[in-house]
């Protein structure tokens, strides 16, 4: 697969070591549920969970990340806007650092999250778009980049099936996450490849004109930048 092997965990946090492999996610989910419900009275437990999650993500601990996502899914109905800080941390992860299994669990969690709370549709879209404004040179082969795109395309299509009314939001997200015009060509190419794929008949044909309009806007910016640089050289 295209993802980098995760780092070996440097430590195991007690928060993620509760119970057996079978009941661990349920116990963790109950802990998260109580922390979210009591956050106004006692924010310490909620903040401790966020810190523990940030530690797991810093260490790129694949097993513990998978366990945490499974725990979140068991209490997804509780994760309303009160839990937005926690959800923002979860959705800041970089796919390339995790295994195919963990990313499958992430996708299942996002499906359950947006099904229960459509307000998180935009954050999930932003997470996907953020994976493509990166230079993966030396990390992913072209075949790996294609797999990355395919995973992103199917992820977005699934989200849009859940929240079709957020089509304008998707276009806005694609525009806002487009790499800056001065970033290297491989970064521009990957993001453009991802965006154009979304406009294909297999993905979101009804958004074809809007998505391609975003791509054209970026190409014009890059072209103008090149012309300005040439003029400076002439001077």
Overall mean pLDDT:
88
Our estimate of the beta-strand percent is under 5%
Number of separate helices:
10
Radius of gyration, in angstroms, nearest whole number: 20 Å
User: Percent range for helical residues?
Assistant: 55-70%
Provide the fold topology:
Layout: H1 24-37, H2 43-59, H3 62-74, H4 84-90, H5 100-116, H6 121-130, H7 142-162, H8 167-176, H9 185-198, H10 208-234
Helix pairs in contact: 1-3, 2-4, 3-5, 5-7, 6-7, 6-8, 7-9, 9-10
Structure explained in plain terms:
This protein is an all-alpha fold and 235 residues long. It is built from 10 helices and no strands. Helix 2 packs parallel to helix 4, helix 5 runs parallel beside helix 7 (142-162) and helix 6 packs parallel to helix 8. The longest helix is centred in the last third of the chain and has 27 residues, at 208-234. The radius of gyration is 20 Å and the shape is globular.
Can you tag this structure with a few keywords?
235 residues; mainly alpha; 10 helices
Structure, briefly:
By secondary structure, the chain is mainly alpha-helical.
